[in-house]
Amino acid sequence: MPLLIAGLVLFIGTHSIAILAPATRDRLAATLGPGPWKALYAIVSLVGLVLVVRGCAAARATPVVLYSPPEAARYVALVLLLPVFPLAFASVLPGAIRSRLGHPLLAATKAWALAHLIANGTLADVVLFGSLLAWAVIERISLKRRPPRPVATAPAGRWNDLIAIVLGLALYGAMLGGLHRWLIGVAPLP
After folding, report:
1. What is the Cα–Cα distance from 131 to 137, expressed in whole angstroms?
2. pLDDT per residue over 103-116, tens digit each?
3. Domain coordinates of the chain in residue numbers?
């Protein structure tokens, strides 16, 4: 569990610097320059992600069960997860989905975390998915209150929504078809 928590602190902390210390973030980005700032941000985030993955694997070896979801919760989660990958792709493929939601990746994160909280009841799951759900909610509220920053995306195009949906559903199918088990070690389907 300590690895999981350390990873979450690094990963969420890095992704929260604009919420918690926007002036520090701007000063660091200006001092280091855009390339080095993004590299540092990416490295710290990646280290956090690696610690999260290792922490989850360690916690899975000796799980602490907080609640046992009913079998139907797995299917509710599968439905909630259906839009996650299309929304993630829509965040970098500007189209109607992105313009309507504003921040489709945060919507995807919230749906992803909520689905996993519904279907999993160990302490590690609650810590991981609960903290990411809370972060996504706080980040979305924060984004409404601060000036927007430019985000690198693909060029706007009339096919972007269709591309995001097709790619997202294909990735969703791949996750159900074995990719989730291969990457995470857990099969989403019985």
Report:
1. 10
2. 999 999 999 999 99
3. 1-62, 64-190
